[in-house]
What does this fold into?
Amino acid sequence: MRASSSTYAARIRRFRLPRLCMPVVGPDASAMIERAESMVRDNPFMEFRLDYLSQPATALPKLKSFLEMHPEATAIATCRRAVNGGKFRGSVAAELNLLLKAADSGFPLVDLELQSVAALKTEDLQELSNRAGLIISHHNFRSTKKLEEQLAEMSKYPADFYKIVSTATNLYDNVVMMKFLEAHSAKHEMVGLCMGEQGIISRVLGVRAGSIFTFGAATRGEETAPGQVTASELRDTYRIETVDAATQVYGVAGDPVEQSLSPVMMNAAFRREAVNAVYLSLHAKSLKDLLACVHTIPIRGLSITMPYKQDIVKELENSDPLTRQIGACNTVVRSADGKLYGFNTDVAGVLVPLEQRLHLAGARVLLVGAGGVARAAAFGLKFKGAEVFITNRTPEKAQALARQAKVKYIKRADVAKQSFDVIINATPVGMGNNKQSPLEEKELNAKFVFDLVYVPAETKLIKMARAKNLQVIPGLEMFVQQGARQFEIWSGKPAPIAEMAYVVSKTLERRAAEEALEEKKPSAKRPSAKKVVRKPKKTARR
Ligand code: NAP
It folds into this structure.
């Protein structure tokens, strides 16, 4: 056997193979072609999952016509067997037969799992390899371990691409995958990524480490693995086609971070200001895991969110005086020598929207809540000369914060008896599907009501305040201002605030519309695409 065929790899390289491949699934040829037709203009690189078809052999003539009609398309044929996590119930011989036919139907690439490869005769594999570019793949659904051993086993067989897909159980697994890609991509044409919610780093940065391409789902709702990113997110938000060795890496780190709007906002800011940087969502289950990644990748800056805002402080080399006083940090900068510097931009996030509307010196401000954000607000407002009152569900916490920030504690029962210039909600009450208000209507005795909750945009508190003709400040303003300050610290450029606010509000609108649509649909009538791609857990891919 040949050591490694370069015929197809060279040809594919000449075509400038895109970095992004989209799986196409469907129960029959018509459904699959319909999906492919809708994708091909923006995503000409597609993987046709023949194993999803009830009758793959009879579908091939139609797929052949599609490929003839779309010479711009580069298509991979995959017919993964059920034992390897696919849906095909046939034998290895039947799988081979289908892939040979696929090659003859115009598929320039075929994908074969290592187990199938190992079961084939040398001459059969050679025959397949003569007719199409061969991708030998291996999937590990549990961990990111023994990558070297897997490659050693795979490279016994000649192929155009070796694809290794593992599962990230922590952030550092991404580093393991990328180091592996860096070590082998000079010798082999490699494709590598980590599945799982924590695999996002490898999905975006794997191409920089040497993965020839990566995979993205067709649409939200068609993800075939936890943590899978849609092709449009990879292209538009993470700009995967332009990620290169000079791209600086930033991210939001916390647990959970799945719903965070920071990637949408910060990537839009980087794009707008032409900063060669990418901003990722880093689901860190421990600070130790996060810090190991920060130093190895290396990550230039972090937005820190729950539950690490306080714990990160002791890991910092230095921070500004206010951050030290508050004892919580939401922004980290990693200098070239690896030292970590911390800032708290939540303070600016609360103060800037207020200062755009009133003078804080002498203003009476009621703070509801005594958690991390309330802390930043209390110290910041006090610094600006405001008269701050804190109330909280757990009075002892409000009393302690009031003592530390040298402001006043107020019993909840006394709130209705007082009037304020500003009331700030620094609790999660009203967030998401929680349609409650942290205060009653009679307690809203203020000129301004600032709800730090920003999902949904119109919380019950905001609605109540509007009904009383009070001026409202939505939580989105804090979100944008704290992000703008982070952008400025990291890039040294003024933040494109209007652009940041625009993308966040558009994303919130889209998510609200999607949720409303989902709620309206009886479960039996949910989108057919979802039904088409739903797989048993073990078959989850990329
Ligand atoms: P945190 O540290 O967990 O503190 C939460 C505070 O809310 C605590 O004082 C807690 O009271 C109180 N609380 C929680 N559930 C409550 C309930 N059901 N009823 C009454 N009080 C309740 O959270 P954080 O980091 O300060 O964040 C607070 C909120 O601010 C977040 O949920 C988020 O919506 C918002 N936020 C907005 C932005 C933005 O950019 N707009 C940024 C960060 C946070 P106990 O002391 O009694 O537990």
